[in-house]
Design a protein that fits this description.
The chain is mainly alpha-helical. The protein is about 40% helix and about 5% strand.
Length: about 110
């Protein structure tokens, strides 16, 4: 999950313009998110996933299926590129330079 920024554009591109239907890339990304997060130790320790939707803001620990529904309905909280609340570690200093370049390219 460390080389994720360029692969995580889907996180903030949830619905088609002018329609409420979810994009396939968003649905697949949420599935991948839940799958990867459930492999971290914090998933077992916490008893679920810290929901990163806009409303929960990683303050509630929920079952996988509930997190999916929250993300489909509300989207991800802003700037959650590195899933630190869900077990991902911050990149090393060298990786941060790469991330900054990737962020600039994304913008």
């Amino acid at each position: 999950m460390n080389n994720i920024l360029w692969n995580q554009r889907w996180m903030y591109d949830r619905c088609y313009s002018g329609r409420s239907s979810l994009k396939k890339s968003f649905v697949e990304g949420v599935e991948e998110f839940v799958s990867k997060v459930s492999q971290h130790d914090c998933y077992d320790n916490d008893g679920g996933i810290r929901c990163p939707c806009v409303k929960c803001d990683c303050t509630r620990i929920l079952e996988d299926r509930v997190v999916k529904v929250h993300l489909y309905k509300n989207g991800f909280k802003p700037n959650y590129w590195i899933w630190t609340d869900d077990g991902e570690h911050m990149p090393h200093v060298d990786d941060k330079k790469t991330k900054i370049i990737e962020i600039i390219k994304y913008l």
